Structures are given as structure tokens and as C-alpha cells.
Amino acid sequence: xxxxxxxxxxxxxxxxxxxxxxxxxxxxxxxxxxxxxxxxxxxxxxxxxxxxxxxxxxxxxxxxxxxxxxxxxxxxxxxxxxxxxxxxxxxxxxxxxxxxxxxxxxxxxxxxxxxxxxxxxxxxxxxxxxxxxxxxxxxxxxxxxxxxxxxxxxxxxxxxxxxxxxxxxxxxxxxxxxxxxxxxxxxxxxxxxxxxxxxx
Length: 200
Description:
By secondary structure, the protein is mostly helical.
């Protein structure tokens, strides 16, 4: 890396460590596109690359007070990015296993007794209950996205929010729903969630 760029990044990190939002925005503008292109080559998805880059910078801002003495800021951020990408791939592996389970489950439900049908109905009921437990704004954004089929931009425009805020609210809603289902120990409810959100 060019020494002047490295020195500039170090100074930027020192400013960010002091809570300078403008410095953070400058670093984001300098590296966000590069980071997205880098991770997209491995994931094969521009959409997921964008999500991972957003998560990376969110993490960076969260730990900003600890980064003032980082010697190689770009390398530091790339490591965060790599960890986020690995986490994503692990989740995708889990989702593939869930997909296989779901296919098997519903094949059995169509050929066996009505017990699986009953289980599915109970899971769907639990899923609906999980949605009602969401904080009002998260519930609203979730329903606009997954029941009305609105895009992030359409939701943002109607509610007067940024696209990034809409994305964060949806992610939080999904986390809340998953936690609710897991707490109640219902695998069928999780399958209903996957099916309802067209995750697969």
C-alpha cells in the first residue's frame, strides 16, 4: 500500500476512535465499494456482499474506541469482512440442511398420517404469535416486506426512513422471530418461517 494512503488511514482511524462520524464516513466512502467487490467474488452475490459490508462497518463503529492505534487499518477491516463472510457461509450451510429437512418433512406430511399436518398448523400458529410479539415498528416493516411484498425503497419512502434503517429493522425482526420459535422449541415453526419468507 502507498505510504501516504496508509498514513492517511491511520489518521482517519484515530479520528474515528474519538467518535468523529465524518472521518468514519470518509473511510466508508474510500473502502465500501472495494470491500463489496472483494467479497462478491467469493459469494457470487452482490446483495449478500452489500449486507456483509454494512455489517463490517457497523462492527467497526461499534468498536471504534479500540482502533486508534491500529497499524494497518485496511487490513484490519478486511479481517472483519472475512469473518463476516465466513459467518454467512456457515449460515448458508445451515439453511441448506434446513431445506433438505423441510423437503423431507413435507413429503412425509403428504403421505403419512394427519399428525404432520397438525404439527405444521401448530407451527404456523406459533410463527404468527412470534410476529405479534415484535415491537410495533419492526412488525410494521416486516409485514410491509413479507406480506405486502414491498421493496426496501418502497418501505423507506412510505415510512420516511432510510433504506439502511429498513434493512436493520427487518434483520432485527427476523432475529426476534427466530429466538421466539427456538425458545418455544418448535422446529415446525422455524420451517414455516423459512417457507413464509421464501428463504430457500
